[in-house]
User: What shape does this take?
Amino acid sequence: QVQLVESGGGVVQPGGSLRLSCAASGMIFSVNVMGWYRQAPGKQRELVASITSGGRTNYADSVKGRFTISRDNAKDTVYLQMNGLKPEDTAVYYCNAGTSRYQYWGQGTQVAVSS
Assistant: This one.
């Protein structure tokens, strides 16, 4: 089992920044990749960014150049730095951890971009 706890969401004006954190606990050694997904009202959950245990990153086209995913292995924490936020970034953001057999999800944190 892997437990994930997100934090850092909130309300921000367009052009602003937020940093999301995802603290992992449990069977961390089994995790191959961690990522951030988001789900806006009426839309499907989509991948925002991911990072492998080896540090390889992947981003959705819509956030490239604005968002950065990183990890602190000493703290078992993954971050999502979000700059240049747009109203269309408004969603619930979920942390995800993937092993060879299972996917684990956090409870989600709300991000709202509004003037």
In short: The two ends are 40 Å apart (CA to CA).
